[in-house]
Amino acid sequence: MAAPEELTPASDFIRDQVRADLAAGTFGGRVQTRFPPEPNGYLHIGHAKAICVDFGIAADFGGICQLRLDDTNPDTEEHEYVESIVDDVRWLGFDPPMPILHASDYFEQLYAWAEHLIEAGLAYVDDQDTETISAQRGGYGKPGIESPHRNRSIAENLALFRGMRAGEFADGTKVLRAKIDMQHENMQLRDPIMYRIRRGHHYRTGDAWCIYPTYDWAHGQSDAIEGVTHSLCTLEFDSHRPLYDWYLAQLPLPREAPRQTEFARLELTHTVTSKRRLKQLVDEGIVAGWDDPRMPTLRGLRRRGYPAAAIRDFCTYIGLTRTNSRHSIELLESFVRRELNRTAPRRMAVLRPLRLTLTNWPTDDAGNPVVEWVEVVNNPEDPDAGSRRVPFTGDLVIETEDFALDPPPKFFRLSPGREVRLRGAYFVTCTEAITDAQGQVVEVRATYDPATRGGNAPDGRKVKSTMHWVSVPHAVPGVVALYDRLFSAQAPGERTGDVMDDLSPQSRELLTGALLEPAVADTPPGAVLQFERLGYFAHDTQTAMLFHRTVGLKDEWAAIQRRGGA
Ligand code: ATP
Ligand code: MG
């Protein structure tokens, strides 16, 4: 079984919960979600799942989903990433309301709320360094140690916190902590850090601030400021939920507090979905950039030719669970193939050309070889795609691997004495193979049967193979990039702890001598074609006649399922 033809409408534990909230009138009947990336890298396939969940659920229930940049770290965030994030979300097929939102717009409100916690005796300034604080936090069954500064007066805490904001203290010399419970069974509630001193230039707020909120202090409060109802995130935040709720419970909110619900991260075999790792691949020059077609970034997948619809369908199909698991990349590819099978025009391309000369091909009255235009359908799956005329001559190329001087058993393609069909054209019979001094076949000679025009013999005789071809005088030269898995291991890093140990030694092969049928020259940048018998290929957006193999034609997912695998 390949990717299913029909997708059932999504239903899952989060949608069930939203439905129940609506029925009970929780949140005043509103549904509002957000997709909150940190602009410290490009979005990847894992984010695609979160985007489909956040925007998809809002859409299903007539709610809204905002795109909010969770930009609270001055060290790693950049404008470049912001633009790509907006662009990628749109490309995936979602339309974030404009203007997009920024957690950094809430710095003033977050600061005011922090003072509110201090005034309520629920936050204090700690002068210890973060290593000490972290060591004092303890662990499961290991008691926490209270900071010597924990019981400072409210007035002293306020003065110190204001001093922190005013830049009176050096980076890292003080933090603001929530005063919760140093013996709490959940480590997140053992007086978590709310603010750090950090003189970094923030890409939006510049040098206005030298204290920055932590993720936990910023996130739920940003949700509340915006009026988010359902704050959906990945499972690693599960243990943070009590803290999320605790902060909101202390604040004078104008309406019902948002509720956090977690779902499983998307992981795929043979790749990584950590921005840090992906950045490392780029920085170390292992790939050519964030949009390298081997990257699981949305940029990379898009350049590789993955249709956005295939990614959305894949995300719908895998659904929402609360158990982390790694999905087979072959399943995603199966959705890509299913979509491209419907939409990609068929063309002929010879990646590793071998000359095929038809010795009985006619010449015209002037002695020039005849050019015949044969009609070939553009997409057998889509009658509306029509057909095109492809020039055929006696001077052709075929795929090198489609010829065998000494054919092994079950090799039905061209070999001496063998007759095959050239797609849409004629039957040809190999009469001779020309070899060079090393015994390499450099040219194949054949005769064609004029009675088989269109690819069928009037006497009903059959051939076992239909091959693609390109007429040499009409051929357009091209470059084709073939890709292998970026990581050879299914679960990169599992063996040694370092994903880099599992990099494929060679994940890209560049074929510079491809010959393409002339219609390929009309392919718009970014469009995907099926090169017959070879796979789907995306026309590069920058370089004309450079093609990236999106996926091959064989459904490896079906094979995995037959073997009873994942
Ligand atoms: P990093 O890779 O640096 O840890 P991140 O993956 O958490 O960062 P964010 O920009 O913080 O990246 O993520 C934005 C949103 O996307 C969050 O809600 C997060 O839960 C979700 N998300 C991130 N990675 C995945 C994933 N692999 N599967 C599903 N959702 C994800
Ligand atoms: Mg994150």
Written description of the protein model:
This protein has 566 residues and is α/β, with parallel strands linked by helices. Helix content is 26%, strand content 23%. It contains 13 helices and 27 strands. The strands form seven sheets. The protein has a seven-stranded mixed sheet. Helix 12 packs across helix 13 (556-562). It starts with 12 loop residues before the first helix and ends with a helix. The mean pLDDT is 96. Bound molecules: adenosine-5'-triphosphate and magnesium ion. Adenosine-5'-triphosphate binds at residues 36-38, 46-47, 49-50, 233-234, 265-266, 273-276.
Which features characterize this protein?
single chain; 566 residues; alpha/beta; Rossmann fold; Ribosomal Protein L25, Chain P; 3 domains; 7-stranded mixed beta sheet; 13 helices; 27 strands; binds adenosine-5'-triphosphate; binds magnesium ion
Helix and strand layout, with pairings?
Layout: H1 13-24, E1 32-35, H2 45-60, E2 64-69, H3 79-92, E3 101-102, H4 107-119, E4 123-126, H5 130-136, H6 154-166, E5 175-178, E6 193-197, E7 211-213, H7 215-226, E8 230-234, H8 241-250, E9 259-263, E10 266-268, H9 275-283, H10 298-304, H11 308-318, E11 325-327, H12 329-343, E12 346-347, E13 349-350, E14 353-358, E15 372-377, E16 387-392, E17 395-399, E18 419-422, E19 427-435, E20 441-448, E21 466-467, E22 470-471, E23 476-483, E24 508-516, E25 528-531, E26 535-539, E27 546-551, H13 556-562
Adenosine-5'-triphosphate binds at residues 36-38, 46-47, 49-50, 233-234, 265-266, 273-276.
